[in-house]
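During the reporting period the student researcher (J.K.) took over the structure-prediction task from the postdoctoral fellow and processed the backlog of single-chain submissions. One of the processed entries is reproduced below for the supervisory committee.
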Amino acid sequence: MEGTNMKIFMSSIYYPNALTCGISRHTYHLYRAFKNECRDVDIMYPYPNNQVEYGIRYSQIHNRFMMPEIAKLFSTKIVLKQKADIYYADYPTSALPLILANKKPLVVTFHDINPIIHPEWQHPIYNWWHRWCYKIAERADKIVFVSESAKEDALRYTKIKEDKIMVVYNGVDDKYKILHSVKRDGTVFVIGYIGGYSKAKNVKTLIHIAKELPNFKFKLCGSFGVHHDLEYEARLTPNIELTGYIPEGKMVNCYNSFDVFVFPSLYEGFGLPPIEAMKCGIPTIVMNAPGVSEVVGNGGIVVNNTNEMKNSIVSLYNSKLLRREYSMKGIDRANQFTWGKMVERYKNIFEGMMERK
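J.K. obtained the following structure tokens:
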């Protein structure tokens, strides 16, 4: 990306170098690229300054008595002082202070519209807050979705006009690759999962499959958080290993420790873990859910229910040739998604909006 003199002010839902989920990875790569190439980029985020690198200047004031989401209401005073060519928010809730301050031109990324389509998957208060923020964020000048499926959902379930919508796919880090140095346990076939444990992630399906395939090892990676019942059931299943949170620096090794990666999520805007696993050459199975099935394409095995997922695991176990086939297909498909492509698309969006000012 060639340099530009545009001034950008960004509002983030996470501090960008946290890299704990797809949204934080997205913001990290977007901010870092523009910070390296632009003369002036600032970002506001809901965490203390001393936790963030890259010269970020602003944080929203909050403490343990004030959730970061609510803190956004009080950060409008920071935004009011800003003067920029482009204002950007990486999520509808992080757009709130920019909208309250009437900052334009404003670009907001909607990674999905899960609270609107599936309100039953969230706590009522959480769901009300997010639905309200999503509605407010519809006022943005441009809204970016991370897949065509997410865009189609928006056109169906919201009043966002199609002429303000853009689709920009996320990318995958080059560090995700086959590591021959990682030795798998050849005595047992390892089925891996990395991700969250909300109802949308449908991890209960994996626990059910693990009980039906007692000779396979299921390795569930990530923090259960408040989902104690699910964690309790998983711990009672002998062939399930719970690793807890996996630090970013160990993610590549973790993927490479799997024989097969499974992702039973019922709804994703994009879904980074399957693409990361595929780039590591791990045969990948996903549910036929909006977003994730679009992104995975023919690089993975797309199934329609729990039984098909179980049978696909067994098929991969029984055929080294099939595993090799989906290893190569997965790498080829994952290589189509790069952070560089994403950054170029955002650059074009920002520059196009500046020309119309």
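The committee noted the following: The CA atoms of residues 73 and 97 lie 6 Å apart.
J.K. will present the remaining backlog at the next meeting.
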